[in-house]
Write a sequence for this structure.
């Protein structure tokens, strides 16, 4: 919420430079419009499409009000590259079943339009609501941009803000990121954040929070990357989806959720397999508290709750550990955690990722062939364990050899590091080697039950190929 309010504050400041003000009104959108329409003649209402199905009821109510009151509605497509509903229509009325098929459908639709030019605020005639006392008496208008506390949201202890919201701040990250992309192209590579993942850089190189809140247009980012590619390679070969695949995955998940209000849950979700996850509050509390006994997992939980962001490698590790990798708990717990703490949390993208990693959808049906070892996974991107030392300071003095699996260190080494496992830092809550074997067996048994009972597998299952799985998890080709 703090990030969103900073975005609004930045917009208000830019309006102020041109003699205007951003008016924030609290209340049901239809009721607010009804009250405003008593004092103003409203000809047109412009807003950006919020394609996630959980917002359809709200937006449809506004459209219905406008239709019955002769107000023209202009709904733009700004949060996504394409209109997800157009993608579904082009695919015959249902979302494309795989990422590969999605790419084929969008290729047929054509490239996303280029971003429009920035609005010239000098040409905008602003309205001063303060001049309309009767209207103000009917509305709850904030005199200034509110704080989270004014909206009833208290700051949790230990939160450390890394990102600041707003277009002007976002543009700094944007230009830095495009420079990074261009340098990668000059070296004959692409997707530098995946090729050389830096899980420690602060602030991160990711633009995901800025794209989520519209500080940076996703179209602006998409075309800036493609233009940088064409500039470096003289359009031979032309840029393709490969160099912006993370953006295309985002679009894929948006299309999957566009007409599915139950996309963020398991039982009523038509594209999700109902896996009988266990219910274990003790396990869940240890996980949410960053006290699993696996340093890489605990570091990820602590960074997430402290800073509101973690690298995609960390997200994959947390997702697998909670679900089919180790704890066998429902992915819905993880989704709720991400939606609560991640500043870049998109309902569609987060739910899609959790379903994928838990093998509930998009991945091979009930597949557990790839199981990330929480005691090893992070070492290929951070062999010295600096990430763990930062977010799990109890282990600060452990030698790199034991930083990922400190319980394997001798008593003498633990004492020298001022951290005795089981006293100063917990022992692993589960033994991964045992849990992963048990979970794989349960997945195989579920597969057999599905085959023998004739249960139909949801259609939105199976990645396009094996390489797609490795790219998704950020695994080396030899893994």
């Amino acid at each position: 919420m703090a990030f969103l309010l900073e975005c609004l504050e930045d917009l208000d400041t830019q309006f102020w430079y041109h003699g205007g003000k951003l008016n924030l009104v609290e209340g049901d959108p239809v009721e607010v419009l009804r009250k405003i329409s008593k004092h103003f003649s409203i000809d047109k209402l412009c807003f950006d499409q919020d394609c996630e199905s959980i917002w359809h009821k709200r937006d449809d109510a506004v459209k219905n009000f406008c239709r019955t009151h002769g107000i023209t509605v202009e709904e733009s497509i700004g949060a996504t590259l394409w209109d997800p509903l157009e993608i579904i229509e082009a695919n015959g009325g249902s979302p494309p079943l795989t990422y590969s098929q999605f790419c084929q459908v969008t290729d047929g639709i054509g490239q996303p339009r280029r971003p429009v030019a920035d609005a010239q605020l000098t040409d905008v005639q602003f309205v001063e609501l303060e001049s309309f006392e009767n209207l103000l008496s009917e509305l709850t208008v904030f005199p200034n941009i509110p704080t989270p506390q004014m909206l009833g949201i208290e700051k949790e202890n230990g939160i450390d803000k890394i990102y600041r919201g707003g277009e002007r701040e976002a543009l700094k990250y944007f230009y830095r990121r495009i420079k990074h992309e261009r340098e990668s192209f000059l070296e004959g590579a692409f997707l530098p954040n995946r090729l050389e993942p830096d899980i420690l850089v602060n602030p991160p190189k990711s633009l995901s929070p800025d794209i989520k809140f519209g500080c940076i247009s996703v179209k602006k980012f998409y075309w800036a990357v493609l233009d940088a590619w064409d500039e470096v390679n003289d359009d031979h070969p032309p840029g393709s989806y490969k160099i912006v695949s993370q953006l295309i995955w985002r679009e894929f998940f948006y299309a999957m959720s566009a007409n599915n209000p139950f996309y963020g849950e398991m039982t009523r979700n038509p594209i999700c397999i109902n896996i009988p996850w266990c219910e274990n509050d003790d396990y869940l509390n240890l996980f949410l508290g960053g006290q699993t006994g696996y340093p890489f997992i605990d570091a990820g939980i602590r960074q997430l709750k402290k800073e509101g962001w973690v690298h995609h490698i960390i997200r994959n590790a947390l997702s697998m550990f909670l679900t089919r990798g180790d704890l066998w708990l429902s992915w819905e717990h993880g989704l709720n955690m991400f939606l609560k703490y991640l500043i870049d949390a998109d309902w569609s993208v987060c739910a899609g990722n959790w379903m994928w990693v838990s093998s509930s959808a998009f991945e091979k049906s009930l597949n557990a062939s790839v199981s990330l070892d929480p005691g090893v996974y992070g070492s290929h991107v951070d062999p010295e364990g600096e990430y763990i030392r930062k977010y799990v300071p109890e282990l600060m003095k452990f030698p790199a050899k034991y930083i990922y699996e400190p319980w394997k260190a001798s008593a003498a080494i633990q004492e020298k590091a001022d951290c005795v496992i089981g006293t100063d830092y917990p022992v692993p809550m589960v033994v991964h080697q045992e849990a992963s074997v048990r979970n794989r067996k349960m997945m195989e048994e579920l597969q057999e039950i599905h085959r023998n009972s004739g249960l139909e597998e949801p259609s939105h299952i199976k990645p396009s190929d094996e390489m797609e799985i490795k790219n998704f998890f950020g695994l080396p080709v030899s893994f």
The chain is about 45% helix and 5% strand.
